[in-house]
Amino acid sequence: MESPPEQTTAQRFQISLSRDLGLLDVTMIGVGAMIGAGIFGLTGIAAGEAGPVGLLLAFFFNGLVTSLTGLTYAELGAAYPQAGGGYAWVKEGLARIFGFYAGWISWFSHSVACSLYGVLFGTFFAELLELGGVSFGEETILFGLTGEELAVKVLAVLAILTFTIINVRGSSETGLVGSIITIFKVVVLGVLVFFGLRALQNIPNWAD
């Protein structure tokens, strides 16, 4: 009686796609990724630099590019429903080495974005705490940083660690938290748009 053939290393360590996310989770993660966090931190700066018309044009073209990117991801995800994402798609369409480059570039860009989002969260949360009566102080405390600067960095690190733990725990937890955050972002943006449109109706006519 012949013994069964031994599995190769590739067969024993084959990576499969974990299907723990529902349609709502996947949709919210995609929408959250397309919205990003820069809209909360850079809109005021962009409005001051480009003016209202320039800002609206920037939002329009950004929405157009983002929509095309989302449709591309949807088509490729349906055509190649395996683990790997952009790495797998580039590897299938081009040489394997380009998939390697795409994977590392994706990892690096997401790492940079994660750090920027962490700093943005730390900045806003520190200001929120100060509005609530918490004082961090302006004197230098550690490594040449003031109390406020140190608080921002500590809050940023804590935020990044929190989401890292959530991602490590599993895709279902990631989907749940991602859905909650995305829904919250959409609601906040909806409130801002609502009050912004109302404010446009009450612009004083200084010529009178």
Total DSSP helices:
7
Strand content: under 5%
Assign a percent range to the helix content.
Answer: over 70%
The class by helix and strand makeup works out as mainly alpha
Strand order of the largest sheet: 1-2
Outline of the structure:
The longest helix is centred in the N-terminal third of the chain and has 42 residues, at 38-79. This protein starts with 8 loop residues before the first helix and ends in an 8-residue tail after the last helix.
Task: Draw up the topology in text.
Blueprint: H1 9-12, H2 23-35, H3 38-79, H4 86-93, H5 96-131, E1 140-142, E2 145-146, H6 147-169, H7 171-200
Helix pairs in contact: 2-7, 4-5, 5-6, 6-7
Defining key terms:
single chain, 208 residues, mainly alpha, two-stranded antiparallel ribbon, 7 helices, 75% helix
How would you describe what is shown here?
- The chain is built from seven helices and two strands; from the N terminus they run αααααββαα.
- It has helices at 9-12, 23-35, 38-79, 86-93, 96-131, 147-169, 171-200, and strands at residues 140-142, 145-146.
- It has a two-stranded antiparallel sheet with strand order 1-2.
- β1 and β2 (145-146) form a beta hairpin.
- α5 packs across α6.
